[in-house]
Structures are given as C-alpha cells and as structure tokens.
Amino acid sequence: MSKQFDVVVIGGGPGGYIAAIRAAQLGFNVACIDEWKNDKGGPAPGGTCTNVGCIPSKALLQSSEHFEQAAHHFGEHGISLDNLQIDVAKMVGRKNTVVKQNNDGILYLFKKNKVSFFHGRGSFAKAVEGGYEINVAGAAAETLVAKQVILATGSNARALPGAPFDEEKILSNDGALRIGAVPAKLGVIGSGVIGLEMGSVWRRLGAEVTILEAMPTFLAAADEGVAKEALKAFTKQGLKFEFGAKISKVDASGEGVAVAYTNAKGEEVTLAVDKLIVSIGRTANTIGLNPEAVGLKLDERGAIVVDDECKTNLPGVWAVGDVVRGPMLAHKAEEEGVAVAERIAGQHGHVNFATIPWVIYTSPEIAWVGRTEQQLKADGVAYKAGQFPFMANGRARALGDTTGFVKFLADAKTDEILGVHIVGPFASELIAEAVLAMEFKASAEDIARVCHAHPSLSEATKEAALAVDKRTLNF
C-alpha cells in the first residue's frame, strides 16, 4: 500500500532536508528519503556536506590548527609545551562525533517538524494521476506517492581517468577525511577548496604536501590580489605548488602512488607520494534515480535541467543544489530548497546568485562575494577600490594573525558595492556583513558610516570601505 504525501524530497543533504522542513512549516505533508548510512548502518542524513564534506573538514581543520598553534605559536604567548604529539585516531574520532551530532540534529528537526523520514534510496517508479510514484529501496522497501517532488541528490567526487578512488591510496574527499596516520608525503591534485583545506590539515600535522594544479594560475575564480596574498601565505607555511601540471599517469601498484605529469616547462616529472588526494571537481548525482521512468531531462553533464525557478521539464518536479546548474555550495542548495518549498506554496521564493558568498577555510581564510576586480575590468565597469590590511588592525595584532586584507570594489558613479574580497582571520564570518550590505544594495559609504566595535576584526571592513574614498583612519 503506497503512502500519500503532498511533497516528497529525494536527498537529505543541505538542499533536501531544508526543503523538507520549510515545506512542512508551510503546512504540507512531507517525506524525505535519504540513504546515507553511518558506520552502524543507521541513517545519517546531511549528505556530502555533513558526512564527508563541510562539517568533518572543519572539524579536522580546527584540530590541526590547534596543533599548529601549539607547535609554532604558543611560545609567543609564554606557553611552553614539551613532547608535543598528535593522536590522529582521537582527532578522527572527534570529527566522527561532530558528524554524528549533526546527523542526529537533522533527524530531530524532522521529528520536530513532522517530516516523515525514509532511510533508503529513492527512485522514480512512474507518473500517476496527480503526481508520481516513488520507490524507496532500503531495509524496509516502501512505495510513496507524491503530488510534488523535490530532487536534491547532490554530487559525487570526479575521479581521474584511469585512476579510480580506492580510498586507501587514491582518495576522494571521503578518504581524505579518514586518513589514519600522518603520511610522510601527500600529493593533492587540484588547488581548489577541498585540495587546499585537506592539504592544510595534513601539512600542519607534519606531512610534506605537494599540490598539482592544471591551471597556470592560482585560484582563478578569486580576486587576483587575494589569490596572490593567499599563495604567498600558503607557500610560506610549507605547501608546495606546481601550476600548469598535466597529469599523464597515476600508478598505485606499489607501496605508494607515483604521479607522472608534464610541468609548465614541458618537462616530464614523477611525484612519489604515500597517498594522493584527487580534488578535480564534482559531478551531479543521479545514480539510481531512474529518470527514464518519467522522462526527466538531464543535460550533457548528467545534471538535471531546471529553469530559473528550479522547475524541471516535468510538472510538479523540482531540483535543487549540486544536481542542478550553479555553484556547488551547501548554502546555495539551502536557499534553493527554501525557495522551492515557498514556490510550491504559491509564494515568491527567491535566490540571488549575485550575493552567494564563497569561503575557503584555510589559514588565512579566504572569502568573497560579488565580482572580482578582473571581472569588472573585463566587463568595462568603472569602479573604485579600497583596501585595508589586517596588519593595521588592533584585534588582528592581539590575535597574532595579521596576514591579509579586506578589499572593497564599488561603482565609480553610484558607490554601490560590487564586490568584497577578504583574505585573513575569520574571513568566513566577516563576509556576512558584505553579503547583507549587497542584498540591500548598500554603498561603500554606508558601511563606512556604520559604527563597528573596537577592537574587532570587523573594523578592517569599515576601514576598507573608507579606503574606497581614500580616507582610512588607521592606515
């Protein structure tokens, strides 16, 4: 006997579970299907973000940052430590606890909001009168009927051709989070978010880390000034970079991994490492969804085709997050999930792609929103720039972390903020003020006129806004 629902969400990651909760808040009878399992076989909703992405990586970054501070910076504070050691198993165990807390939190939220949760893989069976029949394959098979379906099936790590993930020596983000001991030599292919964050974790703990990047430049999506400052900091820390590297072969048949590549000079080079993290992007996940059963349209990359409102080609079927166009970011998925639930309810859900923040949780942190200076130049936009270094910020000095700066880009005529770019301490938190300001179409002058607490890192934001008009007060 099938179970009837107003809305069925397939996928319990950030886009899916948030969509389910919002739909339930709006009065719909909602079910969410997710198959992710914990190590005991139980449900572990939260998707890649909670289980093998955003959350566990931040836990390991925090642990490794503590170790880095103890090893290299506690002495500056008059704190002496002898025989400093890292218990990797305990560190990974703490990470697992943090993940479980988030899994359990989502299950609690489902219960609180009266969302029916089904643990298993959801797939289309067929279209039926007034909706769709959905199969749930799991410990207990179920058949659901939904008037509306929200697809939030996420993405999978992209493997190198000829070098599949074994999660022992050739690692995706999943395996990179489960390394049991500090490798002497670690290779990373790809200098994006995952590569930089995981490379930073294991470099801090003592690994010799080499990052191979196919692009000739570092962080091409970021502002050039920010990328230059970050690269200088990472190199000083001990991360090794090779840009313009074209991988020709990965051989994991021996004890370690041998990576053959052509460098930017055209020379053939082989890098020998104990473990290799491959972070060359992600692909939309529609495995097992059975889109053919209902005629769901996918694009040439396997992503679900949607319009600006996240509608698919099928009536009553929506898709959000990594499985559709746009940046593969958890907070983008959440915003789309909320917007779709509200659209189903006849409201006007909205997602502004121009104000989605980007963050890399390295040290220094990197965050930005809006357009970069190189984009404004390419588009022929007349702009003014203002920049303020953390070196001149009292709170940053007290923290002992003065790397980086805040940079504002504003329209030359109207002074509207077009982009804000931060490299430095707590950039992930500081960027929120810029996002809010841009949502309200604020000017740099608006931020410059707002009182910021002293001493605080946020004063660097105010000073950068003042710098747009060449009137900084502390630099």
TrEMBL record:
Keywords: Cytoplasm, FAD, Flavoprotein, NAD, Nucleotide-binding, Oxidoreductase, Redox-active center. Its main location: cytoplasm. The keyword Iron-sulfur does not apply. Residues 356-465 form the Pyridine nucleotide-disulphide oxidoreductase dimerisation domain. It comes from the Bacteria. Disulfide bonds join 49-54. Binds 1 FAD per subunit. Belongs to the class-I pyridine nucleotide-disulfide oxidoreductase family. This is Dihydrolipoyl dehydrogenase.
